[in-house]
Design a protein that fits this description.
The complex is a heterodimer. Chain A is mostly beta strands. Helices cover 0% and strands 52% of the residues of chain A. By secondary structure, chain B is mainly β. Classes of the chains: A mainly beta, B mainly beta.
């Protein structure tokens, strides 16, 4: 039962353009979502999050959009830079419940930004 | 401020053996979670420890067990290793039980079971 899905295994974009990474979820109890970035041989690094009471959160070049009715979120990176090349994971959790901080991750999307 | 450190970085074990993986939490963090990341998949929650007690568990059998020590460091023990246990094991620490989502992940231990 894949509660969080990232249907695009990979994405390739040109430096300076927009990168859009998508994520779908099925668990209606999720009320908080996070994006992590992972470089090879390193652990995941927290990027940005969004609560279900919002539909958008921005942090510099990174913006996360949440469409609760569609159970869909997306991460926009503008402008994309070669250093953004990494694996991106989205994760959902039930912050207000008894999930004990359990994060449910998607399978990840490999982003490659070409100079 | 030190981050999360895990040891060893790589490990090869034989099916049926037991293994212990170690994690030192980031300074000031009192909660630690363990995740298993199989090749090509996202991390899967194993369990979380808070104040030295297991506080939440994912869909993993009892042969996966853990400990948290008074200094908030932690161990993950896996008994009767199976080939499917081959994965990257990640430790993540945070400041509060389930409410601080600034989880800091270690670089992981790559376990290979042959």
């Amino acid at each position: 039962d894949q509660q969080v899905k990232q249907n695009s295994p990979s994405l390739s974009v040109q430096e300076g353009r927009i990168s859009i990474l998508n994520c779908d979820y099925t668990n209606s109890m999720f009320d908080y979502f996070l994006w992590y970035k992972k470089y090879p041989a390193e652990g995941p690094t927290f990027l940005i999050s969004i609560s279900s009471i919002k539909d958008k959160n921005e942090d510099g070049r990174f913006t996360v959009f949440l469409n609760k009715s569609a159970k869909h979120l997306s991460l926009h990176i503008v402008p994309s830079q070669p250093g953004d090349s990494a694996v991106y994971f989205c994760a959902g959790t039930n912050a207000g419940g008894t999930s004990y901080g359990k994060l449910t991750f998607g399978q990840g999307t490999i982003l490659t930004v070409h100079p | 401020e030190t981050g999360v450190t895990q040891s060893p970085t790589h490990l090869i074990k034989t099916r049926g053996q037991q293994v212990t993986l170690r994690c030192s939490s980031q300074s000031g963090h009192n909660t630690v979670s363990w995740y298993q990341q199989a090749l090509g998949q996202g991390p899967q929650f194993i369990f979380q420890y808070y104040r030295e007690e297991e506080n939440g568990r994912g869909n993993f059998p009892p042969r996966f067990s853990g400990l948290q020590f008074p200094n908030y460091s932690s161990e993950l023990n896996v008994n009767a290793l199976e080939l499917d246990d081959s994965a990257l094991y990640l430790c993540a620490s945070s400041t509060k039980q389930g409410f601080d989502y600034g989880y800091t992940f270690g670089s992981g231990t790559r376990l290979t079971v042959v």
